[in-house]
């Protein structure tokens, strides 16, 4: 009995019975003899993340608390989250259906922090924090993506820094808008798709699909990227599957489903929820609060200019055409399909923005073209790769192992032969050793490492070619930094929001006079004053009727949200139609905002110059600060029914 | 289990191992009688609390049950609303936790596959004379038509005949099958063992009988129509010798050769592939006990004798054995080698089979929860939770589904006020998340599994898997009813419904390999790993 149960004697084990690790992961793969230096690259990139996070947070803090530079959309997303938990009728549907919900849902769990630091919600600082985390993550993900591509570490860190310091990236990493989330989610999806082009592991498609679905819940534009991803994946999957009846169709269909169905589900669910709760599946287009309505009410659609998007691309990334052509040529020469992922997804976004702009449903804001910046960074990365397509997903250690101490490639695949594939059937994953560039480009990364490994390297003896690559990569990014910076400060026609928000801040920092001319900063001061005025009156719940469309800043700033009847409340429509019968004490009517105001639309007599109904008396007028985009409010007192 | 010494191999149950081998294998009438008795009741007599055999009800138990029943009735009468809301809340939370657990299992399996892989070369590297004797048990009952297939599959195993002991376990009164076997097995290493008739007439009892006659260091079970991958036994030997001595059992993967027969077999195949490629490795990674699959579990014979073999009173004796092994301190691992079976293709037959599984899972939970504190002591909190969520959660999800789907439909049709009252906001949102995210997530996991197990043609059927869930619910309800009225009744599954020739299946099983194909230079090379024919050769040159 005990003989059977005793473990086999280790010492008597024959060679084939040697214990072996099982189920290793790619990143843990080590070849015998490879040095174990796992963390260096990761550590540098984590530092980059932390550094940019602090940088963005400090700027965000300064923008919001010092300069009162608050973006409407950012504050309104925070206010929407607040309606979910703090309104008279708390429910998830209060998050609203005009805008996609993820930005609001992300701040939802952080709302209680308001008790410790009211500015987080009052002034929407939570949205800025989300932006900062997202943009710092975008820098990190970009570096990871470049690592996957086999871009030498110094180059990818330089590119990450250059990307993170792009003025528009800084601004959208700090201003609470959703661009940062859009970029990081796109980069995450692209990174997975690039890896999938190199190794058709369904897990990459699953992850990419999930990122795209989250992306859709952040920004509608992702639909275009998702469509591009589906086409790309289906096509590539078809092409890669060996010819044969149904096999190709099945593989392409399954892969397309993997990458596309989460997005399709997010799209369907969001539309269905909207339909069930507010009666229309696409509020963004149908609602009076949506973008389409905004654009037409502003009369901007008429001022459509086809050259505007092109100019904006050139401002953000002047070298994009040149770099794009070079990267394209190189990819064709190397037969590298992975380039299709970033180019396909990001150009789909750009095409979508242009199309919607042409259709007159979108303003010509510079931010809608922001994805050309990550596109440029990725394309520059493609030009700085140290290996061919075969190096995708290979760790530094493996690159090390594939090279001799002199930085010369050790393994040469026979010409015309695919690099050796060694997926062990034992489950011991082995990564194909990076093939050298068949076109004779030096393996910069390997050379760099070899140089770094030499004793006494501090600052001396670095191969000039590596330094040149870093310089070239940064030089490709710098013109965009300069042109964007210049445009932000000087060209309202191309960068309207930046001109009203960023320029005044920069001028203030520089101590220049006239900083406040044309500044939108501080536009919510009137709203905050109203909130303070009403809070002081200690009104009972449901006393003040306001449309949360234009009134979000008041609702964000108030200490007592219960006093308001807001748009998402089930009794809102009734209260608007019959304020007296609903025991409303005050109505808030907005003046000068392009946003639709349901209360003012129902009672046009309450607008400035109108004849008010008998039950309404003007209580207080809160004038606007005069900034572009600022608006005035009139507080009307409702005479209670006799 | 026995208290002294706590969990671990030191605590051995010594159920069958206490009997000398000579007595167990005695060919005479005395040996036969001993085996018959032990096969049915050894476990239940030695450790009654671990067997599903019904004992005499203790006075204590009856009193407790009575008190609980009275309290519940009282609560329902006095505060039906509170009881209903509490019940809905408890069920919703249980549902959510079970779902979350499954997602976590899949996530773990996808992150790092805990399956043990042995390469072909390593499997073949052991010289024949270093291989241990291996016993294969093949229980069959009223299946004369598949006996020839058994012989063929066993002949297809790449294992020296001199070290292979195949016991075809037939019921003594099953004359047709015995006659077929006598003809087919002549001159092969397949020995026919006649199991004397007697209750309970179940597969585990037959297996226990075979176990006592077995001679191998390792034992495995194959069903009559199974097509084990030819190197499976060698891989298991290598994995056992390389691995931790605590590993008492290796569960090989099961899949189906007739996936493309109809919609049910497509669904079933995806479900099995998810089970064996993701969920079980996920369980291994979380350190929870593994409910074994019905066949292709390779077990150290000594351990099996010690823990008492299979419980003939449990209708999923395989799952129960996995639990018992874990409680005795043994580990179970998943082996990267696939046995192809025939998927149940007939609706009624499928429901019968599935209801037996669910009933067995419920039985297993009830048996092992007899002494919850002892269970926690042996499995740990994590292990116990994993067991309850997985083994208990599987039938639970299927049973609750129709209730909640029904409530949802009712809500959409009529918006009755009582439903609003049943779901306070927190529970409502949780239920909503389970329904929408959980449902979509599980459908998606099916598609993903179809793709990763190399069967993209099953992706479309995976998209409409919720219809399959309805079948599961039907089976779960039947199981619950049967658990109360016929706890040990064994729903026999009819085999041979497949219209594909088992020797030449149309669905090609993807060679066993890690979940993740590793990146390689040529994407096309990685997409199509060098395939080898996983089918056992029907005619072996060796024999």
Derived from helix and strand composition plus strand pairing, the structural class of chain B reads alpha/beta
Give the H and E element order of chain B: HHHHHEHEHEHEEHEHEHHEHHHHHHH
Shape of chain A: globular
Uncertain spans of chain B: 1-10, 500-511, 515-543
Strand order of the largest sheet of chain A: 2-1-3-5-4
The portion of residues forming beta strands of chain B comes to 5-15%
User: Which pair of chains has the greatest number of interface residues, and how are they split between the two chains?
Assistant: A-B, 72 and 66 residues
**Radius of gyration of chain B over all CA atoms, rounded:** 24 Å
Number of strands of chain B: 8
Q: Kindly report how far apart the N and C termini of chain B lie.
A: 45 Å
Spans of at least 5 consecutive residues with low confidence of chain A: 1-38, 396-461
Largest sheet of chain B: 8 strands, mixed
Shape of chain B: globular
Entry summary:
The complex is a heterodimer of chains A (642) and B (543). By secondary structure, chain A is mainly alpha-helical. Helices cover 54% and strands 4% of the residues of chain A.
Account of the protein in words:
- The complex is a heterodimer of chains A (642) and B (543).
- Chain A has 642 residues and is mainly alpha-helical.
- Chain A has 26 helices and five strands.
- Chain A has a five-stranded mixed β-sheet.
- The longest helix of chain A has 34 residues, at 245-278.
- With 543 residues, chain B is of the alpha/beta class.
- Chain B has 19 helices and eight strands.
- Chain B has an eight-stranded mixed β-sheet with strand order 3-2-1-4-7-6-8-5, with helices on both faces.
- In chain B, helix 3 (59-78) crosses helix 4 (80-111) and helix 4 (80-111) crosses helix 10.
- Chain B is globular, with a radius of gyration of 24 Å.
- The two termini of chain B are 45 Å apart.
- Chains A and B meet through helix 1, helix 9, helix 10 and helix 12 of A and helix 5, helix 9, helix 11, helix 16 and helix 17 of B.
